[in-house]
Amino acid sequence: MTDVTPEMLRAVADWIFDTALPASVAHALADAARQMEREQADEQRIDELAAEAYRAAGVYLKSSTNWKNASPSAVGLYSAVIRAVLYRIEQEDAGTPTSKVCGQTRPLGDPFRCSLREGHSGAHEAWAGNSTDRKLCATWENE
Length: 143
Ligand SMILES: [Zn+2]
Description:
By secondary structure, this protein is mainly α. The chain folds into 2 domains: about 5-95, no CATH class; about 100-143, no CATH class. The chain has helices spanning about 5-15, 25-60, 70-95, and strands at about 125-130, 135-140. The protein starts with 5 loop residues before the first helix and ends with a strand.
């Protein structure tokens, strides 16, 4: 049996577009082709990173650094480690709050911008400094 490739799915999707069949079927196939390409790209990235980790470990352990000669168990081990790390990074990225800042400038033509969360109520406030040492620089109301 031949493996289905993204190109094959696209060819079928193109063919369906030219027929009386519903376009939603063609769109679903095109989506499947994109998903397949994404997974292939992920696998390639995992392999590149696993090879990098293997080389680094080889230098540290003063053993082989040649990924092409790595044993199947080493390939499996390093790939599993990279997969786990990438999964963890993905989870952390997904959990990062992407709260936006109001950012409105004070209408006096000075450089103060509101540091409060987007959509806040009340007056605008411009703060300076880091999270442990902050200073309120200016407040102003909407005009
Ligand atoms: Zn504001």
